[in-house]
Every structure is written in structure tokens, then in C-alpha cells.
Amino acid sequence: MVREISAGGVVIRKLAGAWWMAAVELPSELARGTQRSRRPAGAKPVLTLPKGLIDAGEEAAETALREVREETGVVAEIVSKLDDSKYVYTRTWGDGGRVFKIVSFYLMRYRSGRINQIAEEMRVEVARARWVRLDEAAKLLAYKGEKQMVRRALEYVEGHGEV
Q1: Under 8 Å between Cβ of 76 and 112
Q2: What domains, with CATH codes, occur in the chain?
Q3: What tens-digit pLDDT sequence spans the chain (163 residues)?
Q4: By three-state DSSP, how is residue 8 classified?
Q5: In what helix (H) or strand (E) does residue 6 lie, and over which residues does it extend?
């Protein structure tokens, strides 16, 4: 079984007294796991956390910060590691092989940048990035492991006040 190691982040900021989180909406071609299939018209967008594969020579935290910047357009700083999400998936492209994936997630604080101001070449991976309320994000995200990370981020901010 192939192994993939990735990293990503839950980027938060406080606006008007509420905590918000950066989320990524997948292009319709990727939402079903293949370049050839599309979501039906009117289907809800698939929201995920920004994340990506760790490049050679990179540490997980560096990857998480890079992926956040590339996929959302914002610059963030790490507050704390949240946890690792581990799962197995079957590729719907190429060899159709099974993949064991580990994604290290970090809680991050927004520092600068404009959400969704990303390079045009990233549009193959990201339809758009947007802020969603942290307390509603677990209901909006598509994947179980990412929902868990958002719940942990919410617990952290509720327990630590100002981040």
C-alpha cells in the first residue's frame, strides 16, 4: 500500500466578536475524486481544509504554512499542532490503488493577506477560498477527520480565550 504524508491548517481569525476559519472549496472536477466526473448542477460545494503533500526537505509545519498560503491567499502563523488524521482511500485515477494517508494539522492564527487571492494555476485545486464561522465549520466540511480538527480548534479557542 502506498503512503502519503501531508500537512495542513485550521486558520482562524476573530471578526466582529466571532471566530472564523479559512476553508477551501474544491473545483467540481475534483469534488468527486476524478478529473472526469462533475458534481450535479446545484449540488453543495465540497469544503475542505487547506492541505497538501510534504515536499522533500520540508518539515510538516512548513508544508502546512505553505499550503495555507497557496490555497487560501492568507499568511498565518502556527499556534499549536492539533493532531494527525489517518485514513485509507482508493485512488479514483491512475492505478486505482489503495493509499494510507497521514495529514498533520496545525491550528494557525491569521496574520495577513486576502482570502481567495491565489495564483491562477491553483484554480485547478481550489475553486475558491472563503471564511466560514468556526462554530459552524464542522457541519460544512466534507471529511470526518477535518471535522474533528475543527472541533479541536474550537475547543482550543474556547479554552484559551484570545489566541
Answers
A1: no
A2: 2-160 (3.90.79.10)
A3: 899 999 999 999 999 999 999 999 999 865 544 433 344 555 678 999 999 999 999 999 999 999 999 999 999 999 999 999 999 999 887 888 899 999 999 999 999 999 999 999 999 999 999 999 999 999 999 999 999 999 999 999 999 866 6
A4: strand
A5: strand 2-15
Report the distance separating Cα 116 and Cα 76, nearest Å: 14
Q: Is the separation of the CB atoms in 52 and 24 below 8 Å? A: no
Q: Which amino acid appears at position 5 of this protein? A: I
Element (H, E) at 136: helix 134-140
Within 10 Å of residue 31's Cβ, how many Cβ atoms? 20
